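Tokens for Bifunctional chorismate mutase/prephenate dehydratase. Go.
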Amino acid sequence: MSDELLNLRKNIDRLDEEILARLAERARNARRIGEVKQGNLYRPEREAQVLRRLAEANPGPLPDEAVQRIFREIMSACLALEQPQRVAYLGPAGTFSESASRKHFGSAASFLPMAAIDDVFRAVEAGNADYGVVPVENSTEGVVGGTLDLLLANPVRICGEVKLRIHQHLLSRSEGIGAAKRLYSHMQSLAQCHEWLNRNLPNLPRVPVASNAEAARLASEDPESCAIAGEAAAELYGLNVLAANIEDDPNNTTRFFVIGRHDAGPSGQDKTSIVLSSANRPGAMYALLEPLARHGVDMTKLQSRPARSGLWEYVFYVDFLGHQDDPEVAAAIAELQERAAFVKILGSYPAAAI
């Protein structure tokens, strides 16, 4: 071993010890904060600010996202010193919802798989989970209507946002596709990989199932089948990746909401989501959206959904930049509440930091 290599390794050992000492000091401070607050340590706005500040201060050579993921795990471990956050998600284990939950809360949280999105909402509302992570829209396939309907009907609040790049893989127990007689996957994944499947496996029967994780489980038990699922499901069920990244859109991304029983405070880079309805008359939508434009509020999404109140009646989901406590946002919302037949603020939350 050369002297230079030996010295470099000694330096790394010394730095590791310094990092460990600093981590211990950080954990003691985090635990003390919990004692002073005598309550939940998790504050989504504070964590978003920390992750953004670290990215801005990052001198390299580690990329910003790598630094943020490392510190996400450090914060998760420090929070778990008091009590791990209980996070409900659409299960079973191995789904993209679980991956989104782990991305946002880190691996030290306690993750609770639920059979349906409704069950995630119920677990949070009843206090059986501290937070829930639910899919709200995909860049290819559009909104998850059931999530929007549940946000309208439930008292929970949106307090966070997660964006997850979705990579779909063709998985199987075997080393090749030749023996496969059926393909399991969730309907959304089949749609996201439609063109690839038409080109490469046009004659293979496609069997929709409840989740990608369920597809992987079935493929692990059926040697004459394959599945479309993510990397987490492949690892969980011991499947071979026959083809990676088969999604038709290379930018395929799913957006998730973090739901809880409290609001998030302003972080400096926030979004607000509301749902509203209007009387059915000419110019009604203009009257609702005009205050946003006049107060300089940047609307990022407008989505209509059928209302449960009557035939051909609709509610409108609106996302815009800013926090409900920001003066210009507060003024715009106040005018909306005067003009609209119904307004519900679903939550203000930090924009996804990673």
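The mean pLDDT is 92.
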